[in-house]
Specification:
single chain; 237 residues; alpha/beta; Rossmann fold; four-stranded antiparallel β-sheet; 10 strands; binds adenosine-5'-triphosphate; nucleotide-binding; ATP binding; ABC transporter ATP-binding protein; ATP-binding; ABC_transporter-like_CS
Length: 237
């Protein structure tokens, strides 16, 4: 069992004069951990904090015992944002070759990353002509180039059809089985059951933490959306 990949302590983040994260305490270990919550609740801000690109007002964030954003972590963390981070005018293979050179990894790793996201057959296609789901898999392949120990994925399945979503979740579990800690955000509650562990977020705070079945049981709800609503109601009562 992996020791905690990430430790967040008393984290406070202010953006635009508004306290977006409020005294967060989270530990993230192995497996697939989902961060679920409504739009604007602070998911991207938390992910930015984990990878070290967010200014913190207070608290600490460490990954593998090292301060988030510190140099030795760069090889160990893969981060995929919602915005596509690959070149539309290059082919899939050219993108991978380019980023492999920048990151100093070999061709074998580039090929392995492409295979991992199941884009071997699209390798000669120009990225700008791929579907949204294929394009996000190219970004994911780039993030996999250095075989990260921690993968931070910000809403990777947004806008994808159900088949692609299912395939991507299967890939996250495969990566977790191979030893990576996978931290995935979503605002789609029906993705909850695909996670080993769930963090439900609302208004900059974690309001529930457990496996999907634990969270359902605790609230007596049949699904995570109802559980979320029950927790919110209890919270404001
Ligand atoms: N660049 C910014 N400057 C100021 N405030 C910001 C900035 N980016 C985000 N915010 C604010 O921070 C809060 C949290 O935003 P964040 O992007 O972390 O939410 P989110 O849960 O990821 O939302 P979504 O699901 O829509 O991506 C929001 O209230 C948003 O208005």
């Amino acid at each position: 069992m992996m020791k905690n990949a990430v430790e967040v302590r008393d984290l406070v983040v202010v953006r635009g004069g508004h306290e977006v994260l409020r005294n967060l305490d989270i530990s993230i270990g192995g497996g697939v951990t989902g961060l679920l919550g409504p739009s604007g609740c602070g998911k991207s801000t938390l992910m930015r904090s984990l990878v070290g690109v967010q200014q913190l007002r207070a608290g600490t964030v460490t990954a593998f015992g090292l301060e988030a954003g510190s140099r030795p972590l760069r090889d160990r963390i893969g981060y995929v944002t919602q915005a596509a981070s690959v070149y539309d005018d290059l082919t899939v293979a050219e993108n991978l070759t380019f980023f492999a050179r920048v990151l100093g990894v070999g061709r074998a790793e580039a090929d392995a990353s492409l295979e991992a996201v199941d884009l071997g057959q699209q390798r000669e296609q120009v990225v700008g002509r791929l579907s949204g789901g294929q394009r996000s898999r190219v970004s994911l392949a780039v993030a996999l180039l250095r075989k990260p120990d921690l993968l931070v994925l910000d809403e990777p399945t947004v806008g994808l059809d159900p088949v692609l979503r299912r395939d991507l979740w299967a890939l996250f579990h495969r990566l977790a089985d191979e030893g990576a800690a996978v931290f995935v955000s979503s605002h789609v509650m029906d993705e909850a059951d695909r996670c080993d562990r769930l963090l439900l977020m609302r208004d900059g705070r974690i309001i529930a933490d457990g496996s999907p079945s634990e969270i359902r049981q605790k609230t007596g709800a049949d699904d995570i959306e109802s559980a979320f609503l029950a927790i919110v109601e209890e919270d404001v009562a």
